[in-house]
Automatic annotation (TrEMBL):
It comes from Dicentrarchus labrax (European seabass). The gene is LOC127377638. The active site is at 174 (proton acceptor). Mg(2+) binds at residue 127. HAMAP family: Phosphofructokinase_I_E. One of its GO terms (cellular component) is 6-phosphofructokinase complex. This is ATP-dependent 6-phosphofructokinase. Substrate binds at residues 172-174, 209, 216-218, 272, 300, 306-309. Residues 26-331, 423-708 form the Phosphofructokinase domain. Its EC number is 2.7.1.11. The lineage of its organism: Eukaryota, Metazoa, Chordata, Craniata, Vertebrata. The keyword Metal-binding applies.
Length: 805
């Protein structure tokens, strides 16, 4: 890892070197239902705690272990959390504990903590576990007084342990906690659901069957809603949106319409807590019986059950949990007697801290609103991530019949006749990325719903100038969400040399707007088209770009469609590679990742796979750094640690090649460990898109088409579209907490065109985190860490926000 300690610079950043944990003890426990990623959170808390000089204790079996004490509370070491990153569930155990709900139980727990001097608790669990922790904190001083009176602890012990600090992390596959976009485990549960749906689709296709799938979510429909979005389900039932009376007929009509449209299968997703508007449960068996009775379709029911809780955590959950774990330790170090108990969570791509009880109260209000049948209110309280998913689902589930739009012109009111229906072209540019097809499907369907005629361009701008442009209908994009690669075809050709022909094709097909989905080439293409507007009036139309590239190297966005799928491929392979060495002697793997000059995949993949060192172009390194890294790893391998992982971005250094690094480690590690090397190559670009990429692609494309519709209306003058201002050629990107449309002309200055990367990249802030978790001494900038905020209820309408998933 380039240079163990970053040089000190004079600036306004705040580093956590002055946040010492010396003399402090932190207890970490997992409670309630398990969730994939809890182990990654435990690992991060332990390593960050030890790093700052605190003692960290495992509290086994949740609150039960805290009440029982004894061997259930054990001091953790650096090595004791090795190799747990990739394990699902929770290694330290979780249990539902009735005793902790009683005063006597909490008194025992307090005694056990004081005996070990633990006054900082990190609780990973659902809202019940966190509420219990808060009650414990409120009672703490009273409990200590009782213990002193009973002679179980000294007054001195009561004084030194007088304040209990609590930080929560939400581990729940249901994503049912207000104040956070994603809880630990949700993304992995979606992976399990989508794996099953993809598998079921092939058999359903063969037999023309209807499948009814029940997913978890007794009180929260997040898993049902997002998996329905991610697999393009025909119908979905979940608690927050009970169907109106007569839904049976509507559903059967839609299923038969889809079959008539050459669709060979139907998928219906039901949350286990689904109800109708009279509070009557809607069960998979009832739906099956209904479909068989009304339509005679061959119908099967699959109940996913605890499969959703199992399996290895996804890359997203490992990164989320690692970031949250480090943030939790920082929050504990900064806590004072007056700081309320807080939860660390994620909003957009930003870590935040929120008062625990505000979040719990809001979560309880959702249930109250649902009990009172105020379902719109419940959806609003769930937060913007849930709202965005629901509005996108509604957009995509409403299909206008072709008869309603004979030529795309018959729209309410004559005055709107000309400016409501336009020809909009969609194309993919650059290298293929998983999730591109989901974005195209969403764009086509939302465009049709908005009254436009949608045109598909094959093979990027090469196909554009050759005239490979044809109209694409609703049914043409059926089943596209789960397909990897680019079904439209994609090329790296830039439009610059073919502007005459492109302008001619725009004229021939009367194209009024352009949606370009792709990577760095797509960004360059849009810039070229924007700059050519002065010479070609045909290019004075609204243009929008969606970043889709595994390298995540496009300016103006924190995340790109396709990067998550690629990260999962890298992490899965690293897990397998590490496992291949189990039982052999100590071994170090040198792994090369893709990404061009952008170190995103290597860095974030390294964080998720538990790498010891990651070499990237953005952080220059020399032979002394390489030597320091080898020595550091050699020291580690002399302990109980068996395996090492070194990631190298393909273009990080032209001389220190993967072979060079491999040979260096082999030579220097002789007698301590042996080495193997692996070049991951194009497997990082293939595969079915992850739930995140399907969802992200679907949502950003829907948002882009709505922007195109608005921009078309604004630029429609004198019977034609004319858009030449810089804000009519935009890139839609995710910036920290919001989805933002940014003019490509303004992003030009933020870009390093030689190396095809943005000049500033947010993920570089994750590098110190990765180094700390790999036992390096480093500088960690905490000025960007979460400040305590409050849960917001009413969000301003005019901000253009969306969320990660």
């Amino acid at each position: 890892m380039a240079g163990a300690v970053a040089p000190k610079r004079q600036d306004t950043r705040k580093f956590f070197e002055n946040l010492s944990g010396a003399g402090k003890s932190i207890g970490v426990l997992t409670s309630g239902g398990d969730a994939q990623g809890m182990n990654a959170a435990v690992r991060a808390v332990v390593r960050m705690g030890i790093y700052v000089g605190a003692k960290v204790y495992f509290i086994h079996e949740g609150y039960q272990g805290m009440v029982d004490g004894g061997d259930n509370i054990k001091e953790a070491t650096w090595e004791s959390v090795s190799s747990m990153l990739q394990v699902g569930g929770t290694v330290i155990g979780s249990a539902r504990c009735k005793e902790f709900r009683t005063h006597e139980g909490r008194l025992k727990a307090a005694h056990n903590l004081v005996e070990r001097g633990i006054t900082n608790l990190c609780v990973i669990g659902g809202d019940g576990s966190l509420t219990g922790a808060n009650l414990f904190r409120e009672e703490w001083s009273g409990l200590l007084d009782e213990l002193v009176q009973q002679g179980l602890i000294s007054e001195e012990a009561a004084r030194t342990n007088s304040v209990l600090h609590i930080v929560g992390m939400v581990g729940s596959i249901d994503n049912d906690f207000c104040g956070t976009d994603m809880t630990i485990g949700t993304d992995s549960a979606l992976h399990r659901i989508i794996e099953v749906v993809d598998a079921i689709m092939t058999t359903a296709q063969s037999h023309q069957r209807t499948f009814v799938l029940e997913v978890m979510g007794r009180h929260c429909g997040y898993l049902a809603l997002v998996s329905a979005l991610a697999c393009g389900a025909d119908w979905v039932f979940f608690p927050e949106m009970p169907p109106e009376d007569g839904w049976e007929d509507n559903m059967c009509q839609k299923l038969s319409e889809n079959r008539a449209d050459k669709k060979r299968l139907n998928i219906i997703i039901v949350a286990e807590g689904a109800i109708d508007c009279h509070n009557k449960a809607i069960t998979p068996d009832y739906i099956k019986e209904l479909v068989v009775r009304c339509l005679g379709f061959d119908t099967r029911v699959t109940i996913l059950g605890h499969v959703q809780r199992g399996g290895t955590p996804s890359a997203f959950d490992r990164i989320l949990a690692s970031r949250m774990g480090v943030e939790a330790v920082l929050a504990l170090l900064e806590a004072s007697a007056s700081t309320p108990a807080c939860v660390v969570s994620l909003v957009g791509n930003q870590a935040v801290r929120l008062p625990l009880m505000e979040c719990v109260q809001m979560t309880q209000e959702v249930q109250k609103a649902m009990d009172e049948k105020k379902f719109e209110e419940a959806v609003r309280l769930r937060g913007r991530s849930f709202e965005n998913n629901l509005s996108t689902y509604r957009l995509l589930s409403y299909r206008k019949a072709d008869s309603e739009l004979p030529n795309g012109e018959e729209v309410a009111g004559d005055e709107e006749q000309f400016n409501s229906s336009f020809n909009v072209a969609v194309l993919n540019v650059g290298a293929p990325a998983a999730g591109m097809n989901a974005a195209v499907r969403s764009a086509v369907r939302v465009g049709i719903t908005e009254g436009h005629k949608m045109f598909a361009v094959n093979d990027g701008f090469e196909g554009f100038y050759k005239g490979q442009i044809k109209e694409i209908k609703w049914g043409d994009v059926g089943g596209w969400t789960g397909q990897g690669g680019s079904l439209l075809g994609t090329k790296r050709t830039l439009p610059g040399k073919h502007l005459d022909k492109i302008a001619e094709q725009i004229r021939i097909h009367n194209i009024s707007a352009l949606l370009v989905i792709g990577g760095f080439e797509a960004f360059e293409s849009l810039l070229q088209l924007y700059e050519a507007r002065a010479d070609y009036e045909e290019l004075c139309i609204p243009m929008c770009m969606l970043p889709a590239t595994i390298s995540n190297n496009v300016p103006g966005t924190d995340l790109s469609i396709g990067a998550d799928t690629s990260l999962n491929a890298i992490v899965e392979t690293c897990d397998r590679i590490k496992q291949s060495a189990s039982g052999t002697k100590r071994r170090v793997f040198i792994i090369e990742t893709m990404g061009g000059y952008c170190g995103y995949l290597a860095t974030v993949g390294g964080l998720a796979a538990g790498a010891d060192t990651v070499y990237i172009y953005e952080e220059p390194f020399d032979i002394r750094d390489l030597q320091a890294n080898v020595e550091h790893l050699t020291q580690k391998m002399k302990t109980s640690i068996q395996r090492g992982l070194v990631l190298r971005n393909e273009n990080c250094n032209e001389n220190f090649t993967t072979d060079f690094v491999y040979q260096l480690y082999t030579e220097e590690g002789r007698g301590v460990f042996d080495c193997r090397k692996n070049i991951l190559g194009h497997m990082q670009q293939g595969g079915a898109p992850s739930p995140f990429d399907r969802n992200f692609g679907t949502k950003v494309a829907a948002k882009a088409i709505q922007w195109i519709t608005r921009t078309l209306k604004d630029s429609y003058k004198g019977g034609r579209v004319f858009a030449n201002s810089e804000d009519t050629a935009c890139l839609l990107g995710m910036r920290r907490r919001a989805m933002v449309f940014q003019p490509v002309a303004q992003l030009r200055d933020e870009t390093d065109f030689v190396h095809r990367i943005p000049k500033e990249q947010w993920w570089l802030k994750l590098r110190p985190l990765m180094k700390i978790l790999a036992k390096y001494k480093t500088s960690y900038d905490v000025s960007d860490s979460g400040q305590l905020e409050h849960v917001t209820r009413v969000r301003p309408k005019e901000t253009n926000t969306s969320s990660t998933i």
